[in-house]
Design brief:
Layout (H helix, E strand, L loop, with lengths): L20 E5 L2 E4 L4 E4 L2 H4 L8 H11 L12 H12 L5 E5 L2 H18 L7 E5 L8 H7 L2 H4 L9 E4 L4 H7 L4 E6 L2 E2 L5 E2 L2 H14 L2 E5 L23 E4 L10 E5 L1 H4 L15 H14 L4 H22 L4 E7 L2 E6 L5 H10 L2 E2 L1 E3 L3 E4 L7 H23 L1
Parallel strand pairs: 3-15, 5-6, 5-7, 7-10, 10-11
Antiparallel strand pairs: 1-2, 2-3, 4-12, 8-9, 11-12, 13-14, 14-17, 16-17
Helix pairs in contact: 2-10, 3-10, 11-13
Length: 401
């Protein structure tokens, strides 16, 4: 069998684009053919501080030369340091480190169930979730999201989840029973189409959780870590969850996740009831601390907020100028979506933008996601708008022809 006809040994889980990158620098990725691409998807909100940030590179290299991994059976000083720093910059009192958002969400659900068990309420084990959610691809998290596309072929959905419409407080309150342990949702839905919860809705969720004695769990895997101009998206509502899942931007490209919890939210966990082999190891913690070094510098989050407002205004102009291509702008901060019109397929728009030198990613409800690294400046926004304008014009001309 020749190399041209050989089947890839990589499992067929992604329909990959025929494009390979060999290096990245700041806001740009460089393909093996030398072409430069403006990165406005950031590894799906992962490359939070851009590519090859000098501080990140040095932190990784320095730690790699000393110690990569020891298990959590031993003290890990940088883990203690990063946990304390995340707690200082959030509602949390305690932090558990893992390797991905999926693990963080699974662990958050476990914490909520265990909390009630320790209180003598083992019957409280169900979680209310919302339509349009995405919490990962394990059996539990696909059941939590209740998306038929991801449930197909995996047998009966894991029990324990009650799904209600996003944003509908009446339906949510009606779903609460004596078996309800928690409410879980993304403050801004990513995969579901960049649907931002209203601040009043988030406040109502907090009040309802308190009223019924249940826990509030936020999935800020995509919308957290500075993406909205505050460290955490829920901060805009002036409330806090009991438990929160974080990942993606927390490692800036290094596989890393975390569960942040108040003392109340973490009170059900004792030694032996949850764990991880790799989570929180020295290499990951060196990178995580480096990300936080950058994000907690004076002016960093203010910069994200300023740039995001500029980008939103420019995208509004883009939509108004191209009504046959785009319907509206959605989202908050640098987690934005362009909903395409019925005659335009978001996936085709993503491919066309790529052909014009800009990387984006699709989402549900015919939306193109814009998730640039948080170091983006107004000049990068201008470059993105120019490519979007050009691409929209090409697509409009094609449809007319």
């Amino acid at each position: 069998m020749t190399s041209e006809t050989r089947k890839s040994a990589v499992m067929n889980t992604y329909a990959r684009y025929p494009l390979t990158f060999e290096r990245g620098e700041g806001m740009y990725l460089y393909a093996t053919d030398g072409r430069r691409y403006l990165d406005f998807y950031g590894g799906i909100a992962v490359n939070s501080v851009g590519h090859s940030h000098p501080h990140m590179v040095k932190a990784l290299q320095d730690q790699a030369a000393k110690l990569w991994h020891v298990t959590n059976l031993f003290q890990i000083p940088d883990q203690e340091r990063l946990a304390a720093r995340l707690a200082q910059d959030s509602f949390a009192d305690q932090v558990f480190f893992c390797n991905s958002g999926l693990e963080a969400m699974e662990g958050a659900i476990k914490l909520a169930r265990r909390y009630h068990f320790k209180k003598g309420q083992p019957e409280k084990w169900r979680t209310i979730t919302v339509q349009g959610a995405f919490h990962g691809r394990s059996l539990a998290t696909i059941a939590a999201a209740n998306n038929p596309k991801y449930l197909e072929g995996f047998g009966p959905a894991a029990d324990g989840f009650d799904n209600v419409p996003f944003g509908n407080m009446n339906a949510l309150r009606d779903a609460i029973t004596d078996k309800t342990a928690a409410i879980a949702l993304e403050p801004i839905q990513g995969e579901g189409g960049i649907n931002a919860a209203s601040l009043d809705y988030l406040r109502a969720l907090r009040a309802t959780a308190d009223e019924f004695g249940i826990l509030l769990v936020f999935d800020e895997i995509q919308c957290g870590m500075g993406r909205t101009g505050k460290m955490w998206a829920h901060e805009w509502a002036g409330i806090a969850p009991d438990i929160m899942a974080s990942a993606k931007g927390i490692g800036g490209g290094f596989p890393m996740g975390a569960i942040l919890a108040s003392d109340k939210g973490a009170s059900g966990i004792d030694p032996g009831y949850h764990g991880t082999t790799f989570g929180g190891n020295p290499l990951a913690m060196a990178v995580g601390n480096a990300v936080l070094d950058i994000m907690t510098k004076d002016g960093f989050l203010d910069h994200v907020d300023t740039v995001s407002r500029y980008l939103w205004a420019e995208l509004e102009k883009l939509v108004a100028a191209n009504p046959t291509v785009f319907e509206k702008v959605r989202g908050a901060g640098l987690m934005l979506g362009l909903k395409c019109t019925g005659g335009v397929v978001a996936g085709d728009m993503v491919k066309a933008l790529m052909a014009n030198g800009m990387l984006t990613v699709g989402a549900g409800d015919n939306v193109v996601r814009l998730l640039p690294p948080l170091i983006a400046g107004e000049e990068h926004c201008d470059e993105a708008i120019a490519i979007l304008e050009k691409t929209a014009g090409e697509i409009a001309a094609k449809s007319e022809g």
